Amino acid sequence: MIKKYLVNPYFLAPMAGFTDSAFRHICLSSGAGLVVTEMVSVKGLAFGSENTAELLECFGDYSHTAVQLFGSEPEYFAEAVKNPMLAKFPIIDINMGCPVHKVVKTGAGSALLKNMRLASEIISTTVKKTSKPVTVKFRLGWDNDNIVAQDFARMCEDSGASAITVHGRTREQMYSGNANWDIIEKVAKSVNIPVIGNGDIKSAVEAKERLNNYGVSAVAIGRGALGNPWIFAECTGTEFTQNWYDVIKEHYTLMLKYLPESRAVPLMRGHLNYYTKRLGLGARLRNQLNRENDMNTLLDILKNCIN
User: What does the buried/exposed string (b/e) look like for 236-264 if buried means 16 or more CB atoms within 10 Å of the residue's CB?
Assistant: First the structure.
Protein backbone atom coordinates (compact mmCIF):
# COMPACT_ATOMS: atom_id res chain seq x y z
CA MET A 1 0.00 0.00 0.00
CA ILE A 2 2.82 2.42 0.78
CA LYS A 3 4.61 2.04 -2.54
CA LYS A 4 2.06 4.07 -4.47
CA TYR A 5 3.18 7.19 -2.54
CA LEU A 6 6.88 6.74 -3.33
CA VAL A 7 8.15 8.45 -6.48
CA ASN A 8 11.71 7.15 -6.12
CA PRO A 9 13.89 5.59 -3.40
CA TYR A 10 15.69 8.77 -2.32
CA PHE A 11 14.00 10.35 0.70
CA LEU A 12 14.61 13.39 2.88
CA ALA A 13 14.98 12.25 6.50
CA PRO A 14 13.20 14.29 9.18
CA MET A 15 15.44 16.61 11.22
CA ALA A 16 14.16 18.82 14.01
CA GLY A 17 14.83 22.47 13.28
CA PHE A 18 15.74 21.85 9.64
CA THR A 19 13.12 19.95 7.63
CA ASP A 20 10.75 22.89 7.72
CA SER A 21 8.05 23.25 5.10
CA ALA A 22 10.16 25.50 2.89
CA PHE A 23 13.13 23.13 2.82
CA ARG A 24 10.90 20.12 2.21
CA HIS A 25 9.33 21.91 -0.76
CA ILE A 26 12.74 22.67 -2.25
CA CYS A 27 13.89 19.06 -1.79
CA LEU A 28 10.74 17.77 -3.49
CA SER A 29 11.40 20.17 -6.36
CA SER A 30 14.94 18.82 -6.56
CA GLY A 31 13.68 15.24 -6.88
CA ALA A 32 13.21 13.75 -3.40
CA GLY A 33 10.86 10.77 -3.55
CA LEU A 34 9.39 11.42 -0.12
CA VAL A 35 9.88 14.05 2.58
CA VAL A 36 8.95 13.87 6.26
CA THR A 37 7.92 16.63 8.63
CA GLU A 38 9.80 17.49 11.78
CA MET A 39 8.61 15.54 14.81
CA VAL A 40 5.11 16.47 15.97
CA SER A 41 4.06 15.69 19.52
CA VAL A 42 0.86 13.67 19.78
CA LYS A 43 0.15 15.54 23.01
CA GLY A 44 0.78 18.81 21.20
CA LEU A 45 -1.89 17.83 18.71
CA ALA A 46 -4.28 16.89 21.48
CA PHE A 47 -3.81 20.11 23.41
CA GLY A 48 -3.46 22.51 20.48
CA SER A 49 0.20 23.48 20.92
CA GLU A 50 1.00 26.79 19.22
CA ASN A 51 3.84 25.53 17.03
CA THR A 52 2.05 22.39 15.81
CA ALA A 53 0.38 24.17 12.87
CA GLU A 54 3.78 25.56 11.85
CA LEU A 55 5.33 22.10 11.81
CA LEU A 56 2.44 20.77 9.70
CA GLU A 57 2.57 23.53 7.09
CA CYS A 58 3.06 22.32 3.52
CA PHE A 59 3.25 24.02 0.15
CA GLY A 60 1.22 22.59 -2.70
CA ASP A 61 0.85 18.82 -2.95
CA TYR A 62 0.92 16.81 0.29
CA SER A 63 0.97 13.50 -1.57
CA HIS A 64 4.70 12.87 -1.04
CA THR A 65 4.96 14.13 2.54
CA ALA A 66 4.74 11.92 5.62
CA VAL A 67 3.93 13.37 9.02
CA GLN A 68 6.14 12.16 11.85
CA LEU A 69 4.59 11.76 15.31
CA PHE A 70 6.24 11.11 18.65
CA GLY A 71 5.03 10.28 22.12
CA SER A 72 4.83 7.43 24.59
CA GLU A 73 1.10 6.95 25.23
CA PRO A 74 -0.95 4.87 22.75
CA GLU A 75 -4.19 6.72 23.54
CA TYR A 76 -2.70 10.00 22.32
CA PHE A 77 -1.64 8.39 19.06
CA ALA A 78 -5.18 7.10 18.62
CA GLU A 79 -6.47 10.63 19.07
CA ALA A 80 -3.76 12.29 16.98
CA VAL A 81 -4.37 10.33 13.77
CA LYS A 82 -7.99 11.52 13.76
CA ASN A 83 -6.95 15.18 14.03
CA PRO A 84 -8.15 17.16 10.97
CA MET A 85 -4.69 18.77 10.72
CA LEU A 86 -3.30 15.42 9.60
CA ALA A 87 -5.99 14.70 7.03
CA LYS A 88 -3.91 15.68 3.99
CA PHE A 89 -0.86 13.60 4.88
CA PRO A 90 -0.92 10.18 3.19
CA ILE A 91 1.57 8.47 5.55
CA ILE A 92 1.88 8.42 9.35
CA ASP A 93 5.45 7.92 10.57
CA ILE A 94 6.20 7.17 14.23
CA ASN A 95 9.50 8.28 15.71
CA MET A 96 11.08 5.66 17.95
CA GLY A 97 14.66 6.79 17.43
CA CYS A 98 15.11 10.39 18.60
CA PRO A 99 18.06 10.32 21.04
CA VAL A 100 17.75 13.76 22.70
CA HIS A 101 17.23 13.78 26.44
CA LYS A 102 14.08 15.90 26.56
CA VAL A 103 12.31 13.35 24.33
CA VAL A 104 13.80 10.21 25.86
CA LYS A 105 12.99 11.26 29.43
CA THR A 106 9.28 11.19 28.55
CA GLY A 107 9.54 7.58 27.40
CA ALA A 108 9.36 8.55 23.71
CA GLY A 109 11.91 8.35 20.89
CA SER A 110 14.83 6.01 21.57
CA ALA A 111 13.43 5.14 25.01
CA LEU A 112 10.98 2.85 23.22
CA LEU A 113 13.89 0.66 22.11
CA LYS A 114 13.95 -0.51 25.74
CA ASN A 115 10.18 -1.01 25.93
CA MET A 116 9.18 -3.18 22.98
CA ARG A 117 5.81 -4.04 24.46
CA LEU A 118 4.80 -0.37 24.65
CA ALA A 119 6.29 0.30 21.20
CA SER A 120 4.15 -2.50 19.78
CA GLU A 121 1.04 -1.15 21.47
CA ILE A 122 1.67 2.33 20.04
CA ILE A 123 2.08 0.94 16.50
CA SER A 124 -0.89 -1.43 16.61
CA THR A 125 -3.14 1.25 18.15
CA THR A 126 -2.17 3.74 15.45
CA VAL A 127 -2.69 1.17 12.68
CA LYS A 128 -6.16 0.35 13.99
CA LYS A 129 -7.19 4.00 14.09
CA THR A 130 -6.17 4.98 10.56
CA SER A 131 -6.52 3.61 7.06
CA LYS A 132 -3.21 5.23 6.09
CA PRO A 133 0.07 3.32 6.00
CA VAL A 134 1.95 3.60 9.29
CA THR A 135 5.74 3.55 9.24
CA VAL A 136 8.28 3.54 12.07
CA LYS A 137 11.74 5.06 12.40
CA PHE A 138 14.16 3.66 14.98
CA ARG A 139 17.83 3.16 15.82
CA LEU A 140 19.92 0.01 16.17
CA GLY A 141 19.50 -0.12 19.92
CA TRP A 142 20.18 1.77 23.13
CA ASP A 143 23.94 1.07 23.04
CA ASN A 144 26.38 -1.43 21.55
CA ASP A 145 25.55 -3.94 24.28
CA ASN A 146 21.86 -3.77 23.44
CA ILE A 147 21.47 -4.01 19.66
CA VAL A 148 17.81 -4.88 19.11
CA ALA A 149 17.28 -3.73 15.53
CA GLN A 150 16.27 -7.09 14.04
CA ASP A 151 13.88 -7.98 16.85
CA PHE A 152 12.47 -4.46 16.84
CA ALA A 153 11.96 -4.60 13.08
CA ARG A 154 10.07 -7.90 13.32
CA MET A 155 7.95 -6.43 16.12
CA CYS A 156 7.09 -3.43 13.92
CA GLU A 157 6.05 -5.74 11.08
CA ASP A 158 3.98 -7.94 13.41
CA SER A 159 2.32 -4.83 14.88
CA GLY A 160 1.15 -3.67 11.46
CA ALA A 161 3.81 -1.24 10.23
CA SER A 162 3.90 -0.84 6.46
CA ALA A 163 7.60 0.09 6.34
CA ILE A 164 10.47 0.94 8.67
CA THR A 165 13.39 3.35 8.59
CA VAL A 166 16.54 2.27 10.40
CA HIS A 167 19.14 4.83 11.48
CA GLY A 168 22.40 2.94 11.71
CA ARG A 169 23.46 4.31 15.09
CA THR A 170 22.62 3.54 18.69
CA ARG A 171 21.03 6.02 21.06
CA GLU A 172 24.34 6.23 22.95
CA GLN A 173 26.12 7.35 19.76
CA MET A 174 23.72 10.26 19.27
CA TYR A 175 25.07 11.64 15.95
CA SER A 176 28.74 10.71 16.43
CA GLY A 177 30.75 7.81 15.06
CA ASN A 178 29.73 5.88 11.98
CA ALA A 179 26.41 4.41 10.94
CA ASN A 180 26.51 0.59 10.84
CA TRP A 181 25.08 -0.39 7.49
CA ASP A 182 25.91 -4.06 8.01
CA ILE A 183 23.24 -4.20 10.72
CA ILE A 184 20.82 -2.27 8.50
CA GLU A 185 21.39 -4.98 5.87
CA LYS A 186 20.60 -7.70 8.43
CA VAL A 187 17.38 -5.87 9.32
CA ALA A 188 16.40 -5.71 5.64
CA LYS A 189 16.78 -9.50 5.44
CA SER A 190 14.74 -10.01 8.63
CA VAL A 191 11.39 -8.61 7.49
CA ASN A 192 9.05 -8.64 4.52
CA ILE A 193 8.16 -4.94 4.60
CA PRO A 194 10.21 -2.17 2.94
CA VAL A 195 13.29 -1.07 4.91
CA ILE A 196 14.68 2.43 4.44
CA GLY A 197 18.32 2.87 5.41
CA ASN A 198 19.53 6.07 7.05
CA GLY A 199 22.90 7.35 8.18
CA ASP A 200 26.10 8.91 6.77
CA ILE A 201 24.88 9.49 3.22
CA LYS A 202 26.73 12.60 2.09
CA SER A 203 26.60 12.30 -1.70
CA ALA A 204 24.57 10.86 -4.54
CA VAL A 205 27.31 8.28 -5.10
CA GLU A 206 26.98 7.09 -1.48
CA ALA A 207 23.18 7.08 -1.71
CA LYS A 208 23.26 4.82 -4.76
CA GLU A 209 25.92 2.56 -3.24
CA ARG A 210 23.87 2.03 -0.06
CA LEU A 211 20.72 1.40 -2.09
CA ASN A 212 22.38 -1.11 -4.37
CA ASN A 213 24.48 -3.03 -1.84
CA TYR A 214 22.58 -3.29 1.43
CA GLY A 215 19.23 -4.79 0.51
CA VAL A 216 17.19 -1.70 1.42
CA SER A 217 14.17 -0.49 -0.54
CA ALA A 218 15.10 3.18 -0.17
CA VAL A 219 17.54 5.50 1.55
CA ALA A 220 16.78 8.51 3.74
CA ILE A 221 19.24 11.38 3.46
CA GLY A 222 19.54 13.66 6.48
CA ARG A 223 22.51 15.91 7.15
CA GLY A 224 23.84 15.20 3.66
CA ALA A 225 20.92 17.22 2.27
CA LEU A 226 21.36 20.25 4.53
CA GLY A 227 22.51 23.16 2.42
CA ASN A 228 22.50 20.75 -0.52
CA PRO A 229 19.02 20.00 -1.92
CA TRP A 230 20.86 19.32 -5.20
CA ILE A 231 21.74 15.88 -3.83
CA PHE A 232 18.29 14.63 -4.84
CA ALA A 233 18.67 15.98 -8.38
CA GLU A 234 22.00 14.16 -8.61
CA CYS A 235 20.42 10.93 -7.36
CA THR A 236 17.46 11.05 -9.74
CA GLY A 237 18.61 13.07 -12.73
CA THR A 238 15.95 15.68 -12.00
CA GLU A 239 16.25 19.06 -13.72
CA PHE A 240 17.18 21.42 -10.89
CA THR A 241 19.41 24.19 -12.20
CA GLN A 242 18.73 27.01 -9.74
CA ASN A 243 21.87 28.71 -8.51
CA TRP A 244 22.80 28.83 -4.85
CA TYR A 245 21.65 32.38 -4.22
CA ASP A 246 18.25 31.85 -5.86
CA VAL A 247 17.61 28.69 -3.82
CA ILE A 248 18.56 30.40 -0.55
CA LYS A 249 16.35 33.36 -1.38
CA GLU A 250 13.44 31.05 -2.31
CA HIS A 251 13.90 29.16 0.94
CA TYR A 252 13.59 32.35 2.96
CA THR A 253 10.70 33.71 0.86
CA LEU A 254 8.74 30.51 1.41
CA MET A 255 9.41 30.66 5.16
CA LEU A 256 7.87 34.12 5.31
CA LYS A 257 4.60 32.74 3.94
CA TYR A 258 3.89 30.96 7.22
CA LEU A 259 6.26 32.51 9.77
CA PRO A 260 6.81 36.05 11.05
CA GLU A 261 10.24 37.46 10.23
CA SER A 262 11.25 37.22 13.90
CA ARG A 263 10.89 33.43 13.67
CA ALA A 264 12.06 32.95 10.09
CA VAL A 265 15.42 34.69 10.39
CA PRO A 266 16.82 32.57 13.28
CA LEU A 267 15.68 29.36 11.54
CA MET A 268 17.16 30.53 8.26
CA ARG A 269 20.50 31.30 9.92
CA GLY A 270 20.71 27.60 10.84
CA HIS A 271 20.27 26.67 7.20
CA LEU A 272 22.75 29.35 6.09
CA ASN A 273 25.48 27.68 8.15
CA TYR A 274 25.09 24.63 5.91
CA TYR A 275 24.61 26.49 2.65
CA THR A 276 27.78 28.52 3.23
CA LYS A 277 29.80 25.42 4.17
CA ARG A 278 28.71 23.79 0.90
CA LEU A 279 29.82 26.93 -0.91
CA GLY A 280 33.23 26.76 0.75
CA LEU A 281 32.74 30.12 2.47
CA GLY A 282 34.71 30.61 5.67
CA ALA A 283 33.81 30.60 9.35
CA ARG A 284 34.37 34.35 9.55
CA LEU A 285 31.48 34.95 7.15
CA ARG A 286 29.26 32.49 9.03
CA ASN A 287 29.96 34.33 12.26
CA GLN A 288 28.99 37.57 10.57
CA LEU A 289 25.75 36.05 9.28
CA ASN A 290 24.93 34.60 12.70
CA ARG A 291 25.07 38.09 14.22
CA GLU A 292 22.81 39.65 11.61
CA ASN A 293 19.07 39.87 12.27
CA ASP A 294 17.95 41.53 9.04
CA MET A 295 17.40 38.99 6.30
CA ASN A 296 17.74 41.45 3.43
CA THR A 297 21.17 42.35 4.74
CA LEU A 298 22.03 38.67 5.00
CA LEU A 299 20.99 38.13 1.41
CA ASP A 300 23.02 41.11 0.22
CA ILE A 301 26.13 39.80 2.00
CA LEU A 302 25.63 36.38 0.45
CA LYS A 303 25.01 37.74 -3.03
CA ASN A 304 28.28 39.65 -2.94
CA CYS A 305 30.17 36.58 -1.73
CA ILE A 306 28.64 34.13 -4.20
CA ASN A 307 28.87 36.38 -7.20
Answer: bebebebebbebbbebbebbeebbeeeeb
> CA nearest 95: which of 85, 83, 109?
109
What residue type is 190 in one-letter code? S
Tens-digit pLDDT profile for residues 238-249 = 988 778 889 999
The CATH-assigned architecture of domain 2-236 is Alpha-Beta Barrel (3.20)
Residue 98 among the catalytic residues: yes
**Model pLDDT for residues 122-174, shown as the tens digit of each residue:** 999 999 999 999 999 999 999 999 999 999 999 999 999 999 999 999 999 99
pTM score: 0.94
How many CA atoms lie within 13 Å of 31's alpha carbon, on the beta-carbon side? 19
CB proximity list for 87: less than 8 A, separation 6 or greater: none
Strand-pair partners of 136: 94, 164
The three-class DSSP label of residue 191 is: coil
117 burial via Cβ count (<10 Å: 0-12, 13-18, 19+): exposed
Rg of the chain over CA atoms, in angstroms?
A: 19
Choosing from 98, 156, 235, 305, which is the catalytic residue?
98
Distance CA 301, CA 297 (A): 6
- Determine contact, residues 97/110, Cβ cutoff 8 Å: yes
